[in-house]
Amino acid sequence: MPIKDLNLELGPGAEFDTIRTMLLRWGALAHGVGDDAALLDVPAGSRLAVSTDTSVENVHFRREWLSAEEIAYRSVAAALSDLAAMGATPLGMVIALTLTEQWRAQIVQLADGFAVASRDLGAPIVGGDLSEGSELSIGVTVLGTVERALTRSGARAGDALWVTGRLGGPLLALRALQSGTAPLPAHRDRFAHPVPRLREGRWLAAHGATAAIDCSDGVAADASHLAAASGARIILEIDRLPLMAGATAQEAAQSGEEYELIVTAPGTLDHRAFEREYGVPLTAIGHVEGAGADGAGVETHEGAHRVPLPRGHSHFSG
Amino acid sequence: MPIKDLNLELGPGAEFDTIRTMLLRWGALAHGVGDDAALLDVPAGSRLAVSTDTSVENVHFRREWLSAEEIAYRSVAAALSDLAAMGATPLGMVIALTLTEQWRAQIVQLADGFAVASRDLGAPIVGGDLSEGSELSIGVTVLGTVERALTRSGARAGDALWVTGRLGGPLLALRALQSGTAPLPAHRDRFAHPVPRLREGRWLAAHGATAAIDCSDGVAADASHLAAASGARIILEIDRLPLMAGATAQEAAQSGEEYELIVTAPGTLDHRAFEREYGVPLTAIGHVEGAGADGAGVETHEGAHRVPLPRGHSHFSG
Question: Cβ contacts of residue A120 below 8 Å, gap of 6+?
């Protein structure tokens, strides 16, 4: 049932009650949900950026690992991270929610998680759809505007490779959760409450970044996406990765769902100005070379030798 | 896994194979899926229209009723119908697909159904997401552009109420399918292959329509949405409903998932010009009055009396 039908007083029924509950919790964070489609304005000179991301129970998370608020928040943060990687500003989002009966009882907590994400990350809820199903599924489609978009394909030989934040927390949290132990609070927080680097992405786009991707599969894997899209070789200096306390460099290289930004930009990028502005480290972790005879890819150093980097992938996914 | 990662040659794996298969079937119908977000342009003077719709197996359809192609086509058609009701032109769509292992074996058929819808209805596939799950779920978010949007709230006292097409087919098809008998081909076609009235919606917006909604819950229910949003009373002449062969007026009033347009416009609307242009009937089925003391709502006639209309709802939905 489209969430748009929900501000009508259409009598009783579980679906209507659920939608009314959500709209009440959302208040002014939900815009324009009274028509068949929401209407939004893209300013002249800007392009529209669109991305979609689905989180499914037992595929992307387990119920016992996260609160309902965290599950809802995290699904929005992950989707918005794709806008951050483009240097875009959120314009709005639509939420497609599939609930089991058990999850319907948690609708207030889920709605509140969406509300926190909407408010904190600046993305109004402009539409949605509510279905029943046999598992919780949250589909978030995000819309943003961007004047000068960062893409994956712009990395140039001579650029430095940069990453925001400190890596390894989500992998360590996930490993603890999967083994039934409690993760360190700092690691758990990075897993449960990722912060898409929206303002940071716009700053980087405005300060000479040539290409960007968000870190969802792990730095090693995501750098290989950048290298392939740019037709370049990326030399990743594993021992320069910025580490969360407790993580090794190998763990940091493979930790996924970080939602930090991996960016190519000239080595002269003023990372200290970035760090002062956002209180987030911006670290040079390698450089870009022409593809040469070996073709596009990612390499690292092992002693004096360069070796192709095994791609890590820490998604909790079959 | 985002469908955008899929044009990279990232080695084997069922999800990558599935995405590669889809991208191969889609060819040029899929645009800009190589970055974190797709970039689209909204022409100056136009607004962006956005809507989302989810189809879940055993909630919105049953596997034995429809082919995989039809399920995929129908999920897109239903979503685009919301753009038709706004008078909008499709700009693109993103598809969030959750597959079971059994459905993964039908990926070519599903991809082809999306391709037919994309091509026939003029909506490029600009992004997507592939997940595994315990049931097939198809989430389609559609994006369109519109210069003069039709909304639900513009109906004015004195307007006539119009509907496109002939009603009743989906309800009769659904009734047959639910009782295990074969629907008439014409009824089945209206259920399996609905055609969103995109060009028709734009024509109506350009020719004086004041409000519109697509018929997803049945004319009676959808007219009540229009009445509520417009703060008006709508008098629906049940015996003037245009009928599919085999349907009664009551069945036509309650048949949902029609994806015809219900529109308010002056009674002088040139319905013959519309019918010549599109080969689809446009029928006056009532009129709009001020809300008066009784408030907004829908009424019909029973002999000499006006009676409130019971709302029908034929969705196959628990």
Answer: none
Contact assessment for residue A48 and residue B42, using Cβ atoms and an 8 Å cutoff: yes
Give the Cα separation of B116 and B133 in Å (integer): 25
Q: What is the pLDDT of residues A64-85, one digit of tens each?
A: 999 999 999 999 999 999 999 9
pLDDT at position A315: 43
CATH 3.30.1330.10 fits A11-30+43-146, yes or no: yes
Q: What percent of chain A has pLDDT over 70?
A: 93
What confidence tens digit (pLDDT) does each residue in A128-164 have?
A: 999 999 999 999 999 999 999 999 999 999 999 999 9
CATH topology of domain A160-306: Phosphoribosyl-aminoimidazole Synthetase; Chain A, domain 2 (3.90.650)
**Contact across the interface for A36 and B141, Cβ inside 8 Å:** no
A105 min Cα distance to partner chain B (Å): 17
Q: Please report residues of B whose CB lies closer than 8 A to that of A212.
A: 36
Give the mutation candidate from B50, B97, B100, B101 for the A interface (greatest A CB count, under 10 A). B50
Task: Answer whether A254's CB lies under 8 Å from A175's CB.
Answer: no
Residues A152, B36: C-beta atoms closer than 8 Å: yes
Compute the half-sphere exposure of residue A189: CA atoms within 13 Å on the CB side of its CA.
Answer: 6
- With beta carbons less than 8 A apart as the criterion, state whether B78 and B216 touch: yes
* B128-177 pLDDT, tens digit each: 999 999 999 999 999 999 999 999 999 999 999 999 999 999 999 999 99
**Residue owning tokens 């409130």:** B308
